[in-house]
Amino acid sequence: MTHDDAAARAALVELSRELGRPDRAWAVLAEGNTSVALGDGRMLVKASGASMAIAVPGDFVAVGLPEVLALVDESADVDPSAGPSEDDDEAVRALFEAAAEQGGRRPSVEALLHAVCLALPGVEAVGHTHPVPVNALLCSPRASLLVEGALFPDQIVVLGTDPLLVPYVDPGLPLARVVRRMLGERLAATGSVPKVIYLGNHGMFALGASPAEVLRITEMAVKVAQVILGSLAAGGPVFLSVEHVARIDTRPDELLRRAALAAGTAASTSPSTNGDRS
């Protein structure tokens, strides 16, 4: 799908301001970033140092997806714990400086991982945040609880059944390469694209078909983290059975709600807190 540049920037401004709202504490100061695929081989991604809470159209830079992915795939078998080489650093610097010459701003280093996500089937928009409840788990020994199962139906509807947890890797090329490999393995094993990528000791990426879906995914991931944290104080989480998860994931009414939420029509199909369907 090809997007008008001005419309894409406007959508990213709206998404970024929602994700960066100070009352939510999902991304403070210059934390976090957002992106959208333009459909012509480029993506718009937040510039380095820009605050999502007060984002404006000029805070986003156009970058070529093939060029970024070529950097990620080059020497992808190198041990990520060793960090990028001097040649890698120079290649990233040259690519981002070229983008800055076009738009006047340098892309965030996370543009590398945004490109990896936007290359996945069905992913048109991405939001990266550091919500406090999510990071409370990601910075603890219990981070795996975020991906071990589902706790309630709306979690399945919005987040799907296969979130991905990635151990801490240095942001930039090493992280993008590890996530690219892990996503390839997940796709080969399940045929599905995760809605959420949790990054140990770092934050989360929400992958959506639209900016509206990215916001919904982030909202639900934060709620899930809050429920898990609360359950730990009451003896620990009790996950739904595999059979119940599969049933909810394929129910016709839930599929309709999932499509409506992804399209941004949540006002008429908002989930209730007790699991009833409107």
UniProtKB/TrEMBL annotation:
Pfam family of the protein (one): Aldolase_II
Entries under InterPro entries matching the protein: Aldolase_class_II_sugar_metab, Aldolase_II/adducin_N, Aldolase_II/adducin_N_sf
An annotated GO BP: pentose catabolic process
A GO term, aspect molecular function: aldehyde-lyase activity
GO cellular component: cytosol
Record's keyword annotation contains Iron: no
UniProt key word RNA-binding: no
The entry's keywords: Lyase, Metal-binding
The name this protein goes by in its record: Rhamnose utilization protein RhaD (Predicted bifunctional aldolase and dehydrogenase)
Organism: Herbiconiux flava
